[in-house]
Design a protein that fits this description.
Length: 338
């Protein structure tokens, strides 16, 4: 029986990248190291992956030699430096320069030490165009200097059987002694899904329904922006729609409101201004956000909603990861059989 590929999970979040790879590789992968600095994300991660691995904290303080040998590096390094929504600072120099100020440097230094077979990175679409493409160019050149063949592609989650318009860039780097000529990013899945496919099957708590006063403030806010020629504002998604991208940090829940007329008890369970609206307008639940990211209903969501929205907004779309991981596995299997 062949040994499983050893993987490390950097910037692990709640484990979305690992879940996609675990589902694709099955018994042919074994996680040997995990790092995630956020204590709340670590709690959600630990409740879903039952192994004896300690979840390490700040990766910038961990030496490469403290990490066990591995074959696959999974790294969804944080998006804030490159996001369209952020300040787009990125970095201004190459691997040995000020990119030391970004967390990609930690992926590079760890992988340069261990020389894994595969490096897999996920980031926001804005990374592709940041600084006229120079930021991505630095990342690609860094990986090539380290001895890797690099491919990257922007993929939309809605093309992989989840109802979310979420474009992200995926970078796959194979060590040069591995024949990766057969690698290609996955084609879109044929099946499409919509909001109706992820909505709760039973009525949800009144706490998810907007108050009349809050709904009115959202409408006035949108009117002010529209008067200025801006498109910003709340959005109510029809059952036949797909969701807007869930946002890093869990903000922007108002962009993915839904209609749900099943509420019968309008007595508030939280402190609200005004009354519970009678139009059936509510926020999606964390479980619905999890489904929009392709997490199975067996995935545990153990924390308070505030933490869960943030974690799910920061996470990845699991089916996209799964589809890419299958293509990576094909290359590794082919090389092992040669």
């Amino acid at each position: 029986m062949k040994e499983p590929q050893r993987s490390i999970d950097l910037f692990a979040g709640i484990g979305g990248i690992r879940l996609g790879f675990d589902n694709a590789f099955k018994e042919d992968i074994k996680t040997v190291f995990v790092s995630e600095w956020d204590e709340h994300a670590r709690k959600t991660y630990a409740s879903n992956f039952e192994d004896d691995i300690e979840i390490n904290g700040d990766i910038t303080k961990i030496g490469a030699d403290e990490i066990p040998p591995f074959d696959i590096c999974l790294a969804g390094f944080p998006c804030q430096a490159f996001s369209i929504a952020g300040q787009k600072k990125g970095f201004e120099d190459d691997y040995n320069g000020t990119c030391r100020g970004t967390l990609f440097f930690d992926v590079a230094r760890i992988c340069e030490h261990h020389k894994p077979k595969v490096i897999f990175c996920e980031n926001v679409k804005g990374l592709e165009s940041h600084d006229g493409g120079r930021t991505l160019d630095v990342i690609v050149k860094t990986l090539r200097k380290m001895g890797y063949t690099v491919s990257y592609k922007v993929i939309n989650s809605k093309d992989h059987e989840v109802p979310q318009n979420r474009e992200r860039i995926y970078i796959v780097a194979f060590r040069k002694d591995i024949d990766a000529s057969s690698f290609s990013f996955p084609n879109p899945r044929k099946k499409k899904t919509y909001i109706k496919d992820i909505k709760e099957k039973t009525p949800v708590s009144v706490k998810y329904y907007l108050s009349t006063q809050y709904l009115e403030s959202l409408r006035k806010h949108r009117e002010r922006h529209e008067a200025l020629g801006n498109g910003f504002g709340y959005e109510i998604r029809e059952d036949s729609d797909v969701a807007a991208a869930l946002v890093c940090g869990g903000m922007g829940r108002e962009r993915n409101l839904v209609y749900d007329d099943r509420l019968t008890n309008f007595e508030p369970v939280t402190n609200i201004k005004g009354e519970v609206n009678r139009e059936g307008i509510r926020k999606m639940t964390p479980r619905e956000w999890a489904r929009i990211q392709g997490f199975p209903d067996t995935f545990k969501l153990p924390l308070a909603d505030t933490h869960l929205y943030r974690q799910l907004g920061n996470s990845v779309t699991v089916p996209v990861i799964f589809d890419i991981a299958l293509e990576i596995k094909k290359v590794l299997d082919k090389n092992e059989n040669q």
